Amino acid sequence: MTTRAGFVALIGEPNAGKSTLLNRMVGAKVSIVTHKVQTTRTRIRGVAMEGEAQIVFVDTPGLFQPRRRLDRAMVAAAWGGAADADIVVLMVEAHRGITEGVERILEGLTEIAKGRTVALAINKIDRVPAEKLLGLSEALNARFGFARTFMISAERGHGVDDLRKWLAAELPESPWLYPEDQIADLPMRMIAAEITREKLTLRLHQELPYQLTVETENWEERKDGSARIDQVIYVMRDGHKGIVLGKRGETVKAVGQAARAELEEFLDRKIHLFLQVKVRPNWLEEAERYSEMGLDFKDGN
């Protein structure tokens, strides 16, 4: 029996649907999906099995024009993820077409593509008529020699099986890289922090976009099979702390309930979740916070 295994990097602009595609391929919620751009901070890997092949997905932060240290570290992580992969899949939103951001990624691809297969996935195809899709596909293929082009809807699942089968066949022959039952190589503490951060992002919408981070400080296994998880939400100002807590603590309580429910479903066991909010004015400049997120502080220089 010949087994195959390798790394596939999904790249594209923020909100191109990379996390949605990863979750659909893997069949579990591994990467955070919100409607805010830039929610994936770390290279979360999801593992999908297809026949005798093991596809390890590197979900990279969206590629965009970086302004701050955190942005620069995220963009470096995205290109780093692509450079480490066997296959790169560029995701482009059908209804947005070739934006300035896509132009920049196409320029960067030439360098990254040496020695690896690059495919194109045009996502959200249900939003545009067929003839427009063909035009977009032709225009993109004229700019770069993609090995294959896939028309998909990550949200609805259209075209996703074809893409997964093709990826599996393209990967190098190799023993599997992970035990078959392991979905993600991110430590559970980090996944738990990401789940809480997603709930905060959804709950607070525009009020506090990227000025907060969540860390799992303590994880205690209990005799009855449950676990106690203590997390800290770091914000930059006292005013932010008030927003996260909400009136009489209602906001943080609702966030905690939503995160706990999802953790219980994900881990299939009872979870006791305790959240604290702390002000750390300079967390965006602390090397330790970056390594917690799987990013390199130096990349932000």
Automatic annotation (TrEMBL):
Residue numbers spanned by region G4: 123-126
Species this chain originates from: Ruegeria pomeroyi
GO cellular component, one term: cytosol
Domain of life: Bacteria
Region listing for G1, in residue ranges: 12-19
Gene3D superfamilies attached to this UniProt entry: 3.30.300.20, P-loop containing nucleotide triphosphate hydrolases
Keywords: Cell membrane, Cytoplasm, GTP-binding, Membrane, Nucleotide-binding, Ribosome biogenesis, RNA-binding, rRNA-binding
Annotated positions binding GTP: 12-19, 59-63, 123-126
Subunit organization: Monomer.
SUPFAM superfamilies in the record: P-loop containing nucleoside triphosphate hydrolases (SSF52540), Prokaryotic type KH domain (KH-domain type II) (SSF54814)
Family the entry assigns: Belongs to the TRAFAC class TrmE-Era-EngA-EngB-Septin-like GTPase superfamily. Era GTPase family.
Annotated region (G3), positions in chain: 59-62
One MF annotation (Gene Ontology) recorded for this entry: small ribosomal subunit rRNA binding
PROSITE patterns, sorted: G_ERA, KH_TYPE_2
Membrane topology of the entry: Peripheral membrane protein
Transmembrane annotation, as ranges: none
Subcellular location per the Swiss-Prot or TrEMBL entry: Cytoplasm; Cell membrane
KH type-2 domain: residues covered: 204-281
CDD domains: Era, KH-II_Era
Residue ranges of domain Era-type G in the record: 4-173
Stretches for region G5: 152-154
Function: An essential GTPase that binds both GDP and GTP, with rapid nucleotide exchange. Plays a role in 16S rRNA processing and 30S ribosomal subunit biogenesis and possibly also in cell cycle regulation and energy metabolism.
One GO biological process term: ribosomal small subunit assembly
Region (G2), start-end ranges: 38-42
This protein's name: GTPase Era
